[in-house]
Amino acid sequence: MSAARPYRYSHAGCAVCALQDSNLSAHEAVRTLVALGSDAQAANEGHASAAPSAPGAGDEIAALLTAGGAAIPADSPRLGGGGGGPRIGRRLLIRGATVIDGTGAPPIGPMDIAVEGARIVEARVVGHPHAPITMPRPAPGDLEIDASDCYVLPGFVDSHVHIGFPQQAKHGPVAPTEYVYKLWLAHGVTSVREVGSVNGLRWTIEQARQAGSGEIAAPHITPYALFPLPEYFHKTPEQARAWVQSVASVGARGVKFLGAQPGTMQAALDEARKLGLRTACHHAQMSVARMNVLDTAGWGLSSMEHWYGLPEALFTDRTVQDYPSDYNYNNEQDRFGEAGRLWLQGAEPGSARWRGVLERLLQLDFTLVPTFVAYEAARDEQRARRLEWHDAYTWPGVWEFFQPNRDAHGSFHFYWTTQHEIAWRRNYQRWMAFVNDYKNLGGRVCVGSDSGFIYNLYGFGLVRELELLQEAGFHPLEAVRAATLKGAQLLGREHEVGSIEVGKRADLVVLDRNPLVNTKALYGTGAVWLNDESRQVERTGGVRYTVVGGAVHDARALLAEVRAIVASEKDRRGAL
Description:
The chain is α/β, with parallel strands linked by helices and 576 residues long. Helices cover 35% and strands 16% of the residues. The protein folds into 3 domains: 15-67, no CATH class; 91-153 and 504-570, Urease, subunit C, domain 1; 156-234 and 250-266 and 279-491, Metal-dependent hydrolases (TIM Barrel, Alpha-Beta Barrel), CATH 3.20.20. The strands form 3 sheets. Strands 1, 2, 3, 4, 5, 14, 17 and 18 form an 8-stranded mixed sheet that branches.
């Protein structure tokens, strides 16, 4: 059997692919587009020309990656019943649940939650724990869930995701969207912020439309466009403004930055604010010496991703990171290895500089999306590599993408040492202290997993991030709130989702173990426990149902489907 050819990016006007297929390298193809006039707005005005047009605004990175041999994921099948659902009734009733409402309030129950269409219409306390229910209850539904031994939470918001990554196609077909979406849903994720739309903005917007209309089983998707590489595009502030206008016009809800020339980035942030777009930034090392988090937050940036730019804002005895003389940013082990020594180069916790940065960011209503889980393999690579869910749930191409590889982003464990891990553990202590202090002052901290990189798997990564927030000092209720109401605020959708309240969208998670007692109960693999009655070691927990806009997904059935998808791909590869 011959290997299936990966699906190549084929959006109309993708001249990069055409040029690269003409024996140009990916970078040469992009440079050729620049020479032909790479202003995205001008290139999409439709003027007749013999020269190839540039990709549409927001599609530049997808075009660059696919020109280099990458691919975008196969679409999810349209829903037609069967499998993991969903089940949809005119009136859904969840009876007798203990509710964790997402606001930071403690659990309460038993409660009945009534849903009509996509909305919560009643959320009523109907009694007391361990006592017969004698209080009036809502009218029956045509679809009911007995949650008398269950906990119900708002659906989780994963504030930093990528729907697959095109580079995974270097190791066979890229993981299909069905696989990614079902892992998210099986772990209670009902909304995601797609920061970058690296598979193409228009492709991501179409995925968001299909998810929102219920055509596919997927969380609600908020698409952000990725501001293109500064060395290729947007030489002037005017070009940056035009690009932001273009992505807004096709439906982007935000813009993700990796860095840019400061004046250009200021202009783009200003234009995004004027158009009502939210903004996020991964302050990459190639730009952070010119603008750290204090700078970009002051220019109107909505949120920072990961940690980049924060230690630099805390410098008091230097202005740049203490790079070794032989450092090379394109060497991923250099990049991530030295990053593990960065936080200790900044101000001490509790110092005047430390407090000043916290207070300034708080004043600006700035949001931190730390993605602790995305870097955890740096402090214990062996643990991350042997996580128990990899065997059954990790797509083979994703697993191969995780392996050390000088050409793959994040696959940096070329020769990862004990000293690297010790440095990263110390790094985490300082990083976590800052994030916890910011939360304690009232700052917004959200849960983002950045799954699909560095042994960090979709769905499972969000649960691990909840655990790591608790390691940082968050109360379990604070961690849940970061994944629900705070995430909804970051999306600008707190009036719609993020807490269990009458009138809000019915995005809910139902499970049969208390996640405040043991967050591991949220993992698709559940938690290990000793059953003292049977004297047997058993598995317990796991999400039971995920409700998205009133549609009930059986999380266990979804996980079974994911296992089948992974097993089928392993069989296909074995037959090649």
